[in-house]
Amino acid sequence: METKWWHNAVVYQIYPRSFADANGDGTGDLAGIIGKLDYLQTLGINVIWLSPVFRSPMDDNGYDISDYCDIAPEFGTLAEMEMLIAEAARRDIRILMDLVVNHTSDEHPWFIEARKSRDNPYRDYYIWRAPRTDGSAPDEQRSNFGGSAWEFDATTGEYYFHLFSKRQPDLNWANPQVQQEVHRMMNWWLDKGIGGFRMDVIDLIGKDVDRGITSNGPRLHPLLQEMNAATFGARDVLTVGETWSATPEIAKLYSEPARRELSMVFQFEHITLTWDPQDGKWTPRAFDLREFKGVIGKWQKVLADIGWNSLFWNNHDLPRAVSKYGDPGRYRIESAKMLATALHFLKGTPYIYQGEEIGMTNVRFESVEDYQDAESLGLYRERIAAGVSHEAMMEGIYANSRGNARTPMHWDASEHAGFSHGKPWMKINPNYREINVAAALDDPGSIFHHYRTLIRLRKEYPVIVYGDYRPLLDAHPQVFAYERQLGDQRIVVINNFSGQLVELELPADLRDLAGESLVSNYGPRNVLGQHLTLQPYESFAIALDTQTT
Ligand code: NOJ
């Protein structure tokens, strides 16, 4: 495998609205991010994925872009963006921009033109269809944010297609002009020295709406190959596609270097395991570790030699990891460290979502409005109208709303958690006095310092980056254990995913091995006896001493 700089990188995702507010208007901004670069350098990450900062009416918090080549005034200016790229580079940190090109905002000049008349030169930048004879929408396709995927436009008497809110019309990727415009814009950003792109719902751009195909459409991979050739292919950047529909085999198509598409994709199979198969995220189902191990093991195996995995527990669309997979109460610290260890020793590129490194948790607001999220609100209305009870819907929101991850970052115990001098755009999680960066930096035993260690180990041990993955104790319902091996380097990682003591009999090939304790969340461990007693959420990694193996 040809080595790449991003193979041992760790990426940190910033949701700019909620990260750090320098000017006191209550909304996070670029100056705020620049002010926290030293903190990120201390953590040790070397890439930032910046959720969208482009000019936008903020119907979907910036995932609705009205100008790809300018910055939203609430976030700052283009000059500040250039300063952020330069200041990050001085600290050896590269910036990934969020490429949101499945759709634009309805305030993008292309759409403003397109809706003027049927023969407008921009008309074909979007997807328009005539009503059915009774005036209704062309078909039954649904938007991800609730309601029909078609919106009637009275001026021209046709419907336009939108897979997200009606203020996010889908671009028509069958139009070569759309392709060229996007390529031009990408090169404009690449010329500014960015480190690559995270590509929003990129598996939707090859859609064929007339056949009801949205993800994995026939034109998807050719479009990505053309994009690669016209833009980043000749540059040494990281590209990661958001692909809810990817299977491991499909992920290989995206990330096999010879196919010249992307560096890697985000897959969500491990995430949707806790969703109801029919009803989706609003009807959560319990986490089953055996299922989870099966999914992770499959992805590790299929992408072992060809392609590359991305590794993550959460992002701005998902609940907080410690609330979902750990224990946000009594064992918050232990379980957050355990989750970090379990993920960071896998093969792939780890992503940390802001606040994960201090163990931020989900939040229980009384009202759905407080979650400030187009998706939660849209689906709440739709489902309540369909007869779901308020209580049932709120339980779904507490478990899985995107708003959980979007409460402002906790910097310290002062008013507004040190996030802003003004009134924050979204309510702060009340637990900020206990859970905050200042406290974490001061405490050598904090979750933050645990992440720091994991990031450093990835840089020091090639076996973490390139080693083979071997699952251990496969059938165990509470323990996720695996081994990584590269030449004579071997690391064994053991994680108790439960709040109970676990008594383990180790299989013959693991018994009585010893080595160096790399990381742990109780005391250090450097021997594997015959019998192990694991504390609640205990987790550790040992670099085996090759003499004993
Ligand atoms: C995925 C993004 O991560 C999400 O936040 C957004 O709402 C949709 N794509 C639409 O852009």
From TrEMBL:
Keywords: Glycosidase, Hydrolase. GO terms for molecular function: alpha-amylase activity. One of its GO terms (biological process) is oligosaccharide catabolic process. The keyword Hydrolase applies. The keyword Hydrolase applies. Residues 13-406 form the Glycosyl hydrolase family 13 catalytic domain. Belongs to the glycosyl hydrolase 13 family. This is (Trans)glycosidase. It comes from Azotobacter chroococcum NCIMB 8003.
